[in-house]
Amino acid sequence: MERPRAWTERARERRMRLSLLTGSLLQAIAAATGPLAMGPWDRQPMPSAGRLANYLESHAANFSALALKGVEPRNDRIIHEHAHINELQQPKAA
């Protein structure tokens, strides 16, 4: 999100479309499944997209561990040669 290309017109449009699609899917899945109690205090749980999203978020670590089993994390760029701190300083002006 901090990269400039994340805020282009096309990127924002795609994120809005994806969020609308995701919200619609959550509502459809929540309507088809039973009510989810969020804790022991929840006496009358109701099926809703928000409850389903919270449930999936609380279990996301389990899903990601299974999905990424054997996959190494990667960075966008790897810097092999590090510049020494003295090389980064500007020369003194006369």
Structure, briefly:
The protein is an all-alpha fold and 94 residues long. The protein is 49% helix and 0% strand.
Question: Which features does this protein show?
Answer:
single chain; 94 residues; mainly alpha; 4 helices
Describe how the helices and strands are arranged.
Blueprint: H1 9-32, H2 49-58, H3 60-67, H4 85-88
Helix pairs in contact: 1-2
Explain what the structure shows.
49% of the residues lie in helices and 0% in strands. The protein is mostly helical. The longest helix is centred in the first third of the chain and has 24 residues, at 9-32. The two termini are 42 Å apart. The mean pLDDT is 78.
Cα(first) to Cα(last) distance is 42 Å
Structural class: mainly alpha
CA-based shape = elongated
Number of strands: 0
Low-confidence stretches: none
Discrete helix count: 4
Overall radius of gyration = 23 Å
Question: H/E element string?
Answer: HHHH
Strand content: under 5%
Instruction: Return the average pLDDT rounded to an integer.
Output: 78
| Helix coverage percent | 40-55%
Q: Tell me about the largest β-sheet.
A: none
